Amino acid sequence: MRTCQFGLFALLLALITGCEHADPLDDGGPPEATFSNIQTNIFNQSCALSNCHIGGNAPPNNAPLDLSAGQAYDALVGVVSGERPNLLRVDPGNPDQSYLVMKIEGAAGIAGQRMPLGRTPLSSDQIATVRQWISDGAPRN
Predict the structure, then answer these.
(1) Tally of domains in the chain
(2) Are residues 33 and 129 in contact, defined by beta-carbon separation less than 8 angstroms?
(3) Least CB-packed of 41, 58, 65, 99 within 10 Å?
(4) Which residue range is the domain that position 94 belongs to?
């Protein structure tokens, strides 16, 4: 019986300490709220695609929006929305008044449809990441 108890203790100890890469505090929440993360994991994956917001294919509204790497930041931060000229695409420090947030959330009053158009909407974690980045002042990080 004593050997069985020791074996059970050893197994439990191995399970507790054996997964050094596991972070018990990581709840799978929003990724790091940096512009480079948003570019790589949101814009490049869902927005800057063929027939969407990329280069010469950017929608030809009042002010085309190119979300490709190297173009997106300057096309977003502090730039007046072509669809809602009374709003900035990204108003640093103010996600609730940033048209980008309104478009990805599908808020009432947006022109057109929720983005990304014709694709799965961004997850709540992705939207939270964009909101946090804007709340942090929309730094070029």
Answers:
(1) 1
(2) yes
(3) 41
(4) 30-135
